[in-house]
C-alpha cells in the first residue's frame, strides 16, 4: 500500500506569511540585508530593554530570532572582554589580599582544632 498526499488546501497557519513592513530606522531597511553595526547594537538594546519579546522584535525587524540572539551573544561577549578600569583592578587586588588572609586564618583554625582535639582529656 503506497502513501499518497492529499491535495487539500494548506491550513491558514501554514500559509506563507506576508512580509511585514520594517521600521524606518537608519541602517535597518537594507535591500542587501547587510546590517550596520550601529543598527545591530540598537536592535540588541531594544531587546535588552525588555519592552518586547525576542520573537516579536525579530518579526518587526524582518530577521530571525536566532539572528537577534547571535547579535546579543556577540555583544555580550565583547563587553566581557573589555579591559578593567583602575577602580576594578584595585577591587580585584583588595579581594585577592582578603582571600589570602582568610585562607591563612582558616589554616590556623584547622591546626588549632587538631591541637585541641589531640590534647582533650
CATH topology of the largest domain: Arc Repressor Mutant, subunit A
Q: Helix proportion of residues, in percent?
A: 55-70%
Elements, N to C (H/E): HHHH
Any idea what the radius of gyration is?
29 Å
What is the domain tally? 2
The pLDDT mean sits at: 78
Low-confidence parts lasting 5 or more residues at pLDDT below 50?
none
Q: Helix/strand/pairing class, anyone?
A: mainly alpha
Essential attributes:
single chain; 121 residues; mainly alpha; Arc Repressor Mutant, subunit A; 2 domains
Structure commentary:
- The protein is mostly helical and 121 residues long.
- The chain has 2 domains: 21-82, Arc Repressor Mutant, subunit A; 86-121.
- It has 4 helices and no strands.
- It has helices at residues 37-49, 54-61, 65-80, 86-118.
- Helix 1 (37-49) crosses helix 3.
- The longest helix has 33 residues, at 86-118.
- The model has no long low-confidence stretch (mean pLDDT 78).
Amino acid at each position: 500500500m503506497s502513501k499518497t498526499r492529499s491535495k487539500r488546501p494548506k491550513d491558514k497557519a501554514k500559509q506563507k506569511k506576508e512580509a511585514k513592513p520594517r521600521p524606518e530606522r537608519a541602517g535597518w531597511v537594507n535591500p542587501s540585508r547587510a546590517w550596520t553595526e550601529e543598527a545591530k547594537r540598537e536592535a540588541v538594546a531594544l531587546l535588552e530593554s525588555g519592552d518586547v519579546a525576542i520573537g516579536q522584535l525579530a518579526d518587526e525587524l524582518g530577521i530571525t530570532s536566532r539572528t537577534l540572539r547571535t547579535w546579543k551573544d556577540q555583544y555580550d561577549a565583547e563587553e566581557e572582554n573589555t579591559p578593567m578600569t583602575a577602580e576594578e583592578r584595585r577591587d580585584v587586588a583588595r579581594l585577592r589580599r582578603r582571600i589570602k588572609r582568610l585562607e591563612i586564618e582558616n589554616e590556623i583554625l584547622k591546626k588549632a582544632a587538631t591541637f585541641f582535639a589531640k590534647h582533650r582529656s
